What we know:
Elements: E1 16-24, E2 28-35, E3 40-48, H1 56-68, E4 79-83, E5 86-92, E6 97-98, H2 99-106, H3 113-132, E7 135-136, E8 145-147, E9 153-155, E10 162-163, H4 168-172, H5 186-190, H6 198-213, H7 223-232, H8 248-257, H9 268-272, H10 283-291, H11 297-314, H12 316-320, H13 322-331, H14 341-370, H15 377-383, H16 385-389, H17 401-411, H18 417-426, E11 470-471, H19 497-500, H20 530-535, H21 562-565, H22 573-578, H23 592-624, H24 629-635, H25 646-692
Antiparallel strand pairs: 1-2, 2-3, 3-5, 4-5, 4-11, 6-8, 7-10, 8-9
The structure holds adenosine-5'-triphosphate.
Amino acid sequence: MAQVSDKKFPVNAKDYNLYEEVGEGVSATVYRALCIPLNEIVAIKVLDLEKCNNDLDGIRREVQTMTLTDHSNLLRAHCSFTTGHNLWVVMPYMAGGSCLHIMKSSFAEGFEEPVIATLLREVLKALVYLHAHGHIHRDVKAGNILLDSNGAVKLADFGVSACMFDTGDRQRSRNTFVGTPCWMAPEVMQQLHGYDFKADIWSFGITALELAHGHAPFSKYPPMKVLLMTLQNAPPGLDYERDKKFSKSFKELVAACLVKDPKKRPSSEKLLKHHFFKQARSNDYLARTILDGLSPLGDRFRMLKAKEADFLVQNQALYEDKEHLSQQEYIRGISAWNFNLEDLKNQAALIQDCDSISNTEDLTVSGKQRNGHDNVGIAEEISSPKRAHHSNSAPHIEYERNDIHTLETIGAFPIKPLQALKDCFDVCEDDSGAGSPSWKDDIQLDSEQPSQIQSSQKVGDPQAGRDDGEILGQSSSLPQSIFPAHKKDLSGTLLPDNVLSPRKMNGDGDREYLQPLRYLSERNYSGPLQYRQKKDITNHTSVEDTSEGAVVQRRGRFKVTSAELSPKAPTNSFSNQVSGGSTNPTTQSLTPASVLPSLHCILQQNTVQREELVKLIKYMEQTSGNTMEFAEAGTNDLSQLPPASSRERELQMQVIQLQQRIGSLVEELQRQKMKNVQLEVKLNTFFRKEGKI
Ligand SMILES: Nc1ncnc2c1ncn2[C@@H]1O[C@H](COP(=O)(O)OP(=O)(O)OP(=O)(O)O)[C@@H](O)[C@H]1O
């Protein structure tokens, strides 16, 4: 039975009275409720298992972790059970709500430093515990930091937590996108070497910025841009005018967490010793400073929902675009980011077009910023409904050096955006110089930690079928050794295998990652990308057709298998085929005849470009009187130009190979025709004989 608290919480829905809604996630709704026999107010998270067709193991893990953890800063479930097609998770009621909701209600510009220090210290204590027990939380963010009425802080939502000690199939899933983009560590995005608990430290740093500003860095951008910015830009920090109010130690703490190389990030344990936390205060201080005067959680939640609805109506046109819908879900503070790799690639392909508009706006900002006119940020702020939504108050000035850098980067996005996307997965910036705090030297870097990943999906639905409570047991998929305490009441599995996880039966905790797209959630947005996808359809390997490494997109989190994300794999199907890399039957439909025109076109472009270059060099020579030997040799006669580039030669070779293939195909066709004729002759002879008989 999934019950670990000293009190015996009933595992039957009829023993609870559900009151108002106090929270909503991607797939779950949270209610304030009364446990009738114990006369105690609780929170009940209701997940609709029917909608949860692709991540029952994930839910099982979340409930297990929630039930088994034993730390004052981790939200622990009292018990859980199924009722009808819903899973109910009964937990302590955190009347203060999440830090995100508190900021949205009353601290739109973020909290004061002592508040931040107090909140972060408590979160860090939870992380120290989780990491020491082999868990990566993977979704650290203000929306998952809850406060009770006394100001006690608890880290919640183990929906995507992972066990670092997992081995075998699950270990193989280490190259899986999990998390929420703004808080996601670059190594999680890159998928080069997997990741470990240091990914939580990055998210922790982003959360620190979120608490300081009222929103996470890059939050005004759609998810694809967040990915690109996180990978390409210098890490965000507390380096701006508006951050002057923050102490040096706070800036150092953030800089230490937001180092792109995970090995250079401190462990949670080390971080807890950082002098920034000297200013942390008591729970009571939090209660007085940020909870006092807040309306009841249910009312706040209702108001926020109403605001969102208004905002949606006002910006309906904007949010018809599905990426913006996803963005809007971000704004609501939940982790609904729904992409698969094809979407990402296609978005990358589109990014030039999109940015040509935003760049115009933002270049003005950047240009003016260089001139030192700070107030121009207001124009951008007002013109951006997305941005404005982050603040309940009047639009505030905000532009960041990173944003400007990013816009410049994206503005200069190469001609082959897909290639660029590949590059950005390849590149891990060396940011050793970025914000190296002096105290960092004290940190013993403990990079040698097991890495691992898991993920989950949760589905919410209001109360339904409350009569047939079913006790959920402890799952076998959680290493039992890691939570030695509080097992006394556990028996069996938290979620029965046969109910929750048909896939579990083979003992393969990871098969979900290899499921084909029929498991895609209904939130698999493709929206504005449809045109391009249709256009590319002949060149693309059908995603549905993939098996090994198939994209599994999860509601609520990125989830992309490693095969597609391999940075070395061509992200452009065209390049894949011309290099002869693919033997997939679905790509074989790409005939030499269909490729040749493209190759010719590329060759032609190359030639044109060469000619342009020659003209330019000549012009430069004339204007500068440059008599450099190379220039002379290079421009006096086109024939003296250096031989074609290796790429050009490679393409020429490919053209020749393709022509040879066409030749052999034509031969093969002739052979088949001959065979046909011979068969026809044989058949005729046979029928003639039959006729005679
Ligand atoms: N015990 C609780 N007491 C009070 N409010 C809660 C409690 N648990 C969750 N909430 C509220 O409900 C919201 C959604 O819960 P939760 O984060 O668990 O759902 P989720 O589907 O995992 O969401 P997400 O995908 O955004 O992380 C939280 O952000 C929080 O505001």
